[in-house]
Amino acid sequence: YSFELFPPKTEKGREKLPETAGILKELEPDWFAVTYGAGGTTRELTMDIVDELQKRLQIPIMHHFTCVGHSKAELEAIIKKMKEKNICNILALRGDAPEGVEHWEPAPDGLEYCYQLIELIRSHDSFFSIGVAGFPEGHIDCPDKGTDSRYLKIKIDAGSDFVITQLFFDNNDYFEYLERVRKIGVTVRIIPGIIPITNYQQLLR
């Protein structure tokens, strides 16, 4: 299992994050993941945090990485910088539209689909381990679960190594998802994404 960390929005939070991660490490997670904002303040911190934590903690740290707001040239430059810092674990995502934007659109000279980002990363041979997102309840932009499953197969064929699912509330959704994607040839590991319920109001949301 792993812990997902969000880049802090304050300097105080940024200073405290390594300490928090160090405490969580005592629970012996297999890895940490650091998210990547849709734009602006926190996304620039992700690589710095991943770099620092993997040096401090000596366990795998996974860098979330999206197409949002980047041209292909910018994405290529970021990938090269990751390689220079020996950041080799990536969760490749198309990403969501920035807050206030109704529909997702690629950046000028950018990439439209996650599989294109995977192909770009995979062009660096086998240096990177690449994970992708799976959607047991279906993706909001897909007309049906069958179409969503076929899109997952495209991402795997582009070079993904494993899948981490979005959270789900009914275990049957996960087991049906496994059956559905296995039938169309997805053989990689599929890890369930789980969010801990810490209070009643969170459960209602």
TrEMBL record:
<keyword id="KW-0560">Oxidoreductase</keyword>
<dbReference type="GO" id="GO:0035999">
    <property type="term" value="P:tetrahydrofolate interconversion"/>
</dbReference>
<protein>
    <submittedName>
        <fullName>Uncharacterized protein</fullName>
    </submittedName>
</protein>
<keyword id="KW-0274">FAD</keyword>
<keyword id="KW-0285">Flavoprotein</keyword>
<dbReference type="GO" id="GO:0005829">
    <property type="term" value="C:cytosol"/>
</dbReference>
<dbReference type="GO" id="GO:0004489">
    <property type="term" value="F:methylenetetrahydrofolate reductase [NAD(P)H] activity"/>
</dbReference>
<dbReference type="GO" id="GO:0071949">
    <property type="term" value="F:FAD binding"/>
</dbReference>
<dbReference type="Pfam" id="PF02219">
    <property type="entry name" value="MTHFR"/>
</dbReference>
<dbReference type="GO" id="GO:0009086">
    <property type="term" value="P:methionine biosynthetic process"/>
</dbReference>
<dbReference type="InterPro" id="IPR003171">
    <property type="entry name" value="Mehydrof_redctse-like"/>
</dbReference>
<comment type="pathway">
    <text>One-carbon metabolism; tetrahydrofolate interconversion.</text>
</comment>
<dbReference type="InterPro" id="IPR029041">
    <property type="entry name" value="FAD-linked_oxidoreductase-like"/>
</dbReference>
<comment type="similarity">
    <text>Belongs to the methylenetetrahydrofolate reductase family.</text>
</comment>
